[in-house]
Amino acid sequence: MASTSSDVSDQTQAIPSRRLSSPQPSELTEELSKRLYPADEAELRDQQLEGLEWSETPYFTGLHHNAGEEDEMLGTSSTGLPQGDLSKWRQKERLKTSAVALVLCLNIGVDPPDVIKISPCARAECWMDPLSMQPPKALENIGRLLQAQYERWQPRAKYKMHLDPTMEDVKKLAISCRRNAKNERVLFHYNGHGVPRPTANGEIWVFNKSYTQYIPMSVYDLQAWVSTPCMFVFDCSAAGLIVNSFRAFSEQRMQENAQMPQYQGVPTPMDDPMKETIILAACEANEILPQTADLPADIFTACLTTPIKAALHWFCARTHLKGEGLTRDLVDRLPGKQTDRKTPMGELNWIFTAITDTIAWNVLPRALFQRLFRQDLLVASLLRNYLLAERIMRSCNCTPVCFPRLPPTHNHHMWQAWDLAAEMCLLQLPALVDKEPGAEFQPSPFFSEQLTAFELWLSHGSKDKQPPEQLPIVLQVLLSQVHRLRALKLLGSFLDMGDWAVDLALSVGIFPYVLKLLQTTALELRPTLVFIWTKILALDRSCQVDLIKDNGHLYFIKYLDTTDGSAGPDSRAQAAFVLAVICDNHQRGAIACARSELPAVCLRHLMACSAGRLRSRGWTLLAKWLALCLGKLCEEQAEVRAVALQQGCVEVLTGLITADDPEIRAASIFALGSLIEAQQGDALSSDKDRLATERLIAGRVLSRVYDASPIVRAEVALVLARLCSGHFTLFQEAAQHVQEMAAAQRTPQCSSPTNSTASVASRAASMRPGQLPPSKLDLARAASLPADRLPKPLLAAPGKPVQLMNGKGQSKAEPAGKNPPEVRGVSPSVKVEPHAPVDVSAANDLSMSSSREIRQQHLESTAESGARDVEPKDSAEEQDEALYTQVLDGLCALATDPAPRVCRRGEAALKLSNVELHPLSPSGQLLSKAVSSATLTGSPRSGSSIPPSMRFQVRSSSHSYPSSSSPPSSPPSSPPAAPAPDPVTDPGKATYVLRKVQALPQDPDKRDCGTVLLARHLLNPVR
To answer: Helices 728-744 and 850-865 meet at what angle, rounded to 10?
Structure first.
């Protein structure tokens, strides 16, 4: 195979072509039989590696051309990652907390009997002193403040509370919340500062109706009332006992369910109730809550619901800034809102979110991080704040408990970055609160410094090293307009390190950020943002649904149609790739893109890709992906296909099938194939214009049957397979004609090697561009037609002598006495050729396989001897039938192609027409699969002897598929057939078994890696 254009040579490697010695006829018979009937797929894949001699003639192929061949067998995706790991970053079910139950057992003014308070001690609840007003009013205010603190994190949830409740009140509250939440999460918050500690038997305390007794309430009952999914927050002493009881009761419940009889065959659910349960407890089973006066009494709740205020109060008590006039009252006057990142409060909240996300992502397993920090907004917020609670309460000799259990994070080094950011903010606080002249808030350099650290990691990091801990911070920086461009470029550089980097970024939560950025109009962000989306969709195309939902495809269509020079061809090719993925097997995406005039955009820019521009790598890449995008857009979309045909896509794509770059040729042929309707049915009753257009496409594609590139020939096989599927009835007629002619014209004598070689050589003359090569039916019908009715491809130019080609591509005179075979009604100077010249050098040094030469000899002899028996038909009908016959000839060539991928697809396409290709033994008998013992892996070099006894027979089925249903999956039962007589010794009595082959899926381009798109042999150049 000749080399491709020099523009893609940097991505290719030279592989020597193969040279095979001329086998003996018996060896060739066995190998050809094995070639047609491989024992298994592995043998077919390994045939190129066995018994080969390598010549010095190189041809070029990219490593990415064979990407995806082994994916389905190895259970991996085209990216090299296991298929099951691709979408783990996306939660199957995104839960949300829709009901919150608040239970406060404070009993203000009365201390529980097992609590001994120090003096002074912590008294504040929800940052207010409960003794500052009457107990009933204080209890009501505390409840209202707690609800407001939770609403800051989840304002859409339904909140219900009971203050100093009874057991019946708690039961009604829990059941009501579960009923309102349905299958969503319920949050149950319990404050037990006014009741005794939980018991070792798994009981917490509430009150009786007269508030004269403490009533124990079993956690076992609470589990049943709240059910799952749920989250519990227990702010009381010895809260760890409750967690232990939860786990013990969960195991007990599972055992009880397993012992229950199964009624009516319905299995008892055995799922662990703790699987969907999250518990946050204030301290261990043997600990009491801290009572230091510098902190509120509900410091655990304060950390969960008001983290910034709790962190600053704790930091203020331990910092040296006390001498600077910093007090807790001044901290309470910190200006700004949490939602405004330009204010001190908003910036600190932004930094706190980035730091706690970073700590969790670096210490937790990926699956647990996804569950706790990416599934539910309220749960994620409370778990981030829990990390702060662990740090603060451990300083008070108290250890919070979480289920699922988290590793210790109180000593993580990122807390030092938080202390620095908090200190720099508090230094400015006196001037900002007093509103001194010229006092302006100075933003923290935290994010800029973290981007610098991330950039440093990129210069030295790799897949084998620890992932960058700043990745969650980079995502937070995307929210800032100041650092957004820098963060996007660094993120793009990280994604460019490989699929593992893309998967890592998706697992940390990049997707919602970059999806939202598609709504921006900043021109400087467009190239980097398109590149990032290219990387994401190359790994996981399921994101196409989210893009269409948010109208993200409009962003890429607009960028693809950029003509002001701000977008280079490489970057626009990436946009074309994104749009192609959006349309791939996604009807809604294809329709949305078509309504946005994507077909016109693709065709307009394809026409702009002139021959001179295609010498550049960027324009080559753009033309390739424009063709692929157009093909995916029209695939299985009749309305879009009709629009594309009206806009002249056939002419535009036909001009690219002769491009120098084989990937452009393959992409254009794929796009042409998408214009063919592949649904099986009665082709005679279909739209005549559609059939004519599809026949025109098939005629154009036939010229690439002998293309030098195997990826091009593989796409040709798929296009012809689609034609076989859509024109099934017409192909059956063509196959029947071939069968009848082969049966009628079989002679007992085989042509000699000399005559066969001359016959093959006599067909090497060139035809005018755009004409279809003649088939055996053309030659047969030409014998009975007058010269003025002959099809133009069969008329020889007057006065032109016949020129033969030698193996080196040089013309030579015909040997004496070896005139070309004459056909009645045709001038002796007629030149007949296969779909491409036999000239080896003219065909890019692609050696013709021995099976093709043998097939040509057989078809030539049958056409010459049987020409007189064919009746003339209408010229248009003749040309149509000739086309189908030529398609069958092309599929026979592809089914015996030396490339395994091409061979498999050629055989599959023949089976779609109920046609099988069988070799003949030297005696003329059909070979059976039992004689297959070797594999034909190549073709003899030019000039080698070809055994004349090796011929092929096309065998078609007498059973047609139903016109409106799928092909049957198994052949009909029939009585055993009698042994067929030898067609050589007794041709008059020869019978040809009409055999039905097993059906294949209707859509031929969806099996065996059937397209050139999506991380297969054309994806790597873009990625």
So the answer is: 70
Q: What is the largest CA-CA distance in the chain?
A: 126
> Could you give the CA distance from residue 257 to residue 273 in angstroms, rounded to a whole number?
11
The structure's pTM equals 0.73
SS (H, E, C) 645-659: HHCCHHHHHHCCCCC
Rounded distance, CA 552 to CA 549, Å? Answer: 8
Q: How far apart are CA 128 and CA 422, in angstroms?
A: 24
Domain tally for the chain? 2
Q: Residue 401 burial (CB < 10 Å; 0-12/13-18/19+)?
A: buried
486 in any annotated domain? no
pLDDT at 701: 92
Q: What is the CATH number of the domain that holds 384?
A: 3.40.50
Cis peptide before 229 (omega within 30 of 0): yes
563 pLDDT band, cuts 50/70/90, is confident
Q: In terms of residue numbers, what domain contains 291?
A: 97-259+268-403
Average model confidence (pLDDT) for the chain? 74
Alpha carbon distance 341, 481 (integer Å) = 11
Torsion of CA 91, 582, 623, 514, to 10 degrees: -50
| pLDDT given at position 877 | 67
Taking residues 85-95, report their average pLDDT.
Answer: 68
> Taking the mean position of all CA atoms in its chain, how far away is CA 788?
56
CA distance 606 to 576: 12
C-alpha span between 184 and 97 (Å, rounded):
6
pLDDT top residue among 1015 and 778: 778
Give the whole-angstrom CA distance, residue 892 versus residue 776: 14
Count CB atoms within 10 A of the CB of residue 975.
5
Residue finishing a domain among 403, 418, 436: 403
As a whole number of angstroms, the distance between CA 611 and CA 659 comes to 8
Q: What is the pLDDT of residue 69?
A: 60
Give the strand order in the sheet containing 277-281: 158-163, 97-104, 185-191, 230-235, 277-281, 401-403
pLDDT recorded at residue 639: 86
496-510, 633-647, 864-878 — which is least confidently predicted? Answer: 864-878
The whole-angstrom separation of Cα 891 and Cα 738 is 14
E runs forming strands in 717-858: 804-805, 811-812
pLDDT of amino acid 437: 76
pLDDT 10s digits, 415-467:
999 999 999 999 888 888 887 777 788 999 999 999 999 999 999 878 888 88
Give CA–CA dist 757/805, Å, rounded. Answer: 12
Name the residue type at position 373. F
| Spatial contact of 109 and 168, defined as CB atoms under 8 Å apart | no
One-letter amino acid for residue 206 of the chain? V
Q: Given the DSSP bridges, would you call strands 401-403 and 277-281 parallel, antiparallel or unpaired?
A: antiparallel
Residue 717 falls inside a structural domain? no
Where does a domain end: 657, 691, 713?
Answer: 657
Q: How far apart are CA 697 and CA 654, in angstroms?
A: 8
Question: Which of 542, 477, 528, 475 minimizes the C-alpha distance to 504?
Answer: 475
For the stretch 202-256, pLDDT in tens is: 999 999 998 889 999 999 999 999 999 999 999 999 999 999 999 999 888 887 7
Please write the tens of the pLDDT for every residue from 384-406: 999 999 999 999 999 999 999 99
What span, in angstroms and rounded, lies between the C-alpha atoms of 262 and 267?
6
SS (H, E, C) 177-231: HHHHHCCCEEEEEEECCCCCCCCCCCEEEEECCCCCCEEEEEHHHHHHHHCCCEE
Residue 820 lies in a domain: no
Interatomic CA distance for residues 675 and 645, integer angstroms: 8
The answer to whether position 319 is within a domain reads yes
